[in-house]
Specification:
The protein is of the alpha+beta class and about 80 residues long. The chain contains 2 helices and 3 strands. The chain has a 3-stranded antiparallel sheet with strand order 2-1-3, with no helix packed on it. The longest helix is centred in the first third of the chain and has 14 residues, at about 20-30.
Length: about 80
Amino acid sequence: MGDHFQTIVDPDASAGEAPELAARVVERLVTEGIVLADDDCFAFGHLGFEFWNWPEFTPGFRADIARLLDGHRTAYVWGKF
């Protein structure tokens, strides 16, 4: 067992555009009832979204997040403790 994490990072986002892009993704995730809008989540790079103990992301979910990030390339990091 153990906890596992998944992070989607937008290494192409600049410090200036990261807040707008983050708001767009969080708004979508909150609207769909996927997350609660409690915290800001930043990872390596200027923008990242971290999810603990979720099912493995589908390729479609990851593509949808990239689309919300203006098509920026994304890095996907995952692990288990």
